[in-house]
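Hello,

Our lab assistant flagged a job as stuck in the queue for most of the afternoon. It eventually completed. Since we weren't sure the result was trustworthy after the delay, we are filing this so someone can double-check. Below is the sequence as submitted and the structure that was eventually returned. Let us know if re-running is recommended.
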Amino acid sequence: MNRPARALSHGFWTCLGCRQLVTVPRETRTCLCPRCGARMHARVDGSIMLTWALTITGALLLIPANILPVMTVIYLGSGDPSTIIGGTLELYHNGLWGIALIVFVASVAVPVMKLVGLVILCLIVQLRLNVAPRQAMRIYRVVNAIGRWSLLDLFMISILVALVDMGAIAEVAAGAGSTAFATVVVVTMFAVRAFDPRLIWDIYEEKMSAVEAENISQSHQDQSGERA
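-- returned structure --
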């Protein structure tokens, strides 16, 4: 079966900064893009190791982000700190189930889905799992797309802190949980950027080449057997 030609096998590298296609000698390990000056590599150096490190860091930070209070609403001198889960449940019990669903999806479901997706992608590449590359790329696109929605909770807190400042009557203060949550969002964004999706197709090409070589070898053996 004929497969599309690969740019890497013909000595072409793609600049991840400006997407310029550059001809590079085969013995070259790194160079600068002639158009934007960004450093180019055939594949991102240490992509899987760096993605694992950032993903594990994000998973560990997700614990204090959900345990520590994200904000405290002080009204007439009294107020209790609120965690992400606690705030979601309070919104639901007050009948604001729509807002509660939005907060839960943006602050709990999306970060967890993103971390799980990153783990799956790293396992596919590192363990060379037999997964269709298009399915793996769909996971990558989803993980890359949903990350920005995690900032919704932080935007809400920053707006409340800026608007609700009525001295001794009412005040909103951000908690340590918001800092941890913001760090989770940033770390997972870097993890997605560190992962090189081209590695998925490298594994696919290696497996297809091995299958073709095995088929050719089997065909030669069959021809030798027929001649004998």
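-- support follow-up --
The delay was a queue issue, not a problem with the job. The result is valid. The beta strands are 12-14, 21-23, 30-32, 39-41, 71-75, 81-82, 170-174. The helical segments are 47-67, 84-93, 97-126, 133-146, 152-163, 176-194, 198-227.
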